[in-house]
Amino acid sequence: MHIHIIGICGTFMGGLALIARELGHQVTGSDAGVYPPMSTQLNEQDITLFEGYSEKNLEQKPDLVVVGNALSRGNEELEAVLNKGIPYTSGAQWLAEHVLYQDRWTMAVAGTHGKTTTASLLAWMLTHAGLDPGFLIGGVADNLGLSARLGKGRFFVIEADEYDTAFFDKRSKFIHYRPKTAILNNLEFDHADIFRDLDAMKLQFHHFLRTVPANGRLLINGDDKNIEQLLAMGCWSEQQTFGLASNHEWHAKTLNRDNTAFEIWRQGKYTGQVAWSMPGQHNMMNALAAIAAADHAGVTIDKSIEALATFKGVKRRLEVSGVVNGITIYDDFAHHPTEIMASLQAIRDQVGKARVIAVMEPRSNTMRMGIHQDTLAPAFSAADMVHIVNTQGLQWDIRRITDKLGQSCTLSEDVDGAVAAIAGNARAGDHIVIMSNGGFGGIHRRLLDRLK
Q: What global pTM score does this model have?
């Protein structure tokens, strides 16, 4: 059939498009913001993209429309779907009915942070073990090449997002997935545009726990107090904890400053040593969770460690965009204070005393609303300098942050001004970490060109 996807350039919906194509469907899509890596990925798969939302995008008369969760009533294209009586569904529901419920062993990675990297690691471990898993992940791992694949094996790895499903279904997307293996990486308040508070998030996460069968397995960050409170609400599945403390079923012992070498311990027994290229304690925890999940699928720890040694990273997760005149530019998706702190600390641990410059666009709905304004300044503690680019029209006074950071912080209102200011201050040996959950006006390439 002809499936048309509204909001196709989101990582989830773009991945869905790839899977629909693999199933033999004709796929088209539209979006207001078209930028790499998803636009590139879709073009390479010969999927027709329409720039902007319009009733004209429906002229080919699709059999089914899949509606992205960013779409709301009043959108011209969505209104046309409703008025014309075209059948429609959500991305999560379509995936569940046409892929996950088709005798697949679903392995879901949930939590506020680390979902994309952990899911990518798990998918690569299963692939390395020859299990040919399917996957749909909110990013593109270099080892996997795509953000989604149907796969011929039994296992399917899904990044289990807590954001709501669609304009007509306000449950979190992960409610649809019904995993047999589930990872809970961590739990913090986020998405203030749809959740009233942390308790509202916990309720949705507990609904997610209820969907894991009794013969399934929950892999839980044992160091996270919010998850501990979540489990107290009721849990009916086998549980295994992972973390840094030795009392967990799975725990890791770091062997060097940047956590690129560490030991894996299970039930107090040494089981192997990891040596890989991903810096940061948060990435060590992501790897530990993925190893534990792969174990549930029958992958040996030794095989998972082999996979980690060859893992090349995920696009937009501390990805090196380029090096010019001794200045290294990184692209990072961090958009929450915890993520910002983890990314900057990972770079600091790796580069030692070299200058680290953080460039941040407060773009997420939660950031724009000012929910994190009291915790944002401390998140930059590992950086020598901070440059904030206020492109999004914040609902709070950004000077609350710049005043706290003092002379180490500068501010621009647009990308042009930011590029000029950053390039004018940069010098050989600097590490510039650019953080945003959007395209950021192509600042990475523009800064590299300016530095040349």
A: 0.92
